[in-house]
Amino acid sequence: MSVTVNIPADMEVVYEYPRSMNKVYTHYCPGCPHGILHRLIAEVIDELGIQDRCIGVAPVGCSVLIYKYFNVDFVEAAHGRAPAMATGIKRTNPDKIVFTYQGDGDMAAIGTAEAIHAANRGERLTTVFVNNAIYGMTGGQMAPTTLPGMVTTSTPMGRDVRLAGYPVPMSEILAQTKGAVYITRQMALDLPSIVKTKKAIKRAFMAQMADLGYSSVEVLSTCNTNWNMSPWDSMVWAKEHMVPTFPLGDFKMTDEVRALKVR
Known about the structure:
globular
């Protein structure tokens, strides 16, 4: 359902939707950062003037309906196959700006091979990887990024690394591939970090526009519904517990990417 806003003539407009976003009601849980990340991507697309060239690829997960929020072309991929589909789209349409939007279960479990090999091949793709350390859509089960000792519906006593191994550090792994040119991990847990995340997303898109190679922006996020916390408490918890396990920063940035003028 679209949303219509009537602004009185005597009021000044101080906020507008990005052109690359549709005015629709959200299906995400209250407090979910997906909406923030959608907005950041849309702002970057507008600022770079690439709305008519963008093609987004989303797989199964909480963001399965992402296409309804964006006023750009979107396609749906099978679970974990977004990088493979994006590769085909980019190779047959090299003038397009192609990006995937993936969760931790999608990118760090069923789609690990696709992600690593796309990066290793240096596919001219951009990935936004949302890491909230849990399976959000399917009921709060343990994900590959679930922290040791973290309680989920499938680990009611906490994740036992002797049985389930350790959290998968996707950014550190992707940074080792030859074809990756920009790999970074940011977070969307407060205003300063949101500003940094937008800059990282913009740099990643610009790296693709410059035909430099594969880029990925991992974003630490929350899932207050499945974490059984308030939105505020979940953000505090993520800063205190996720960041030590998944340190923030740039894991790979080539000189060509570093030279890009990101404003």
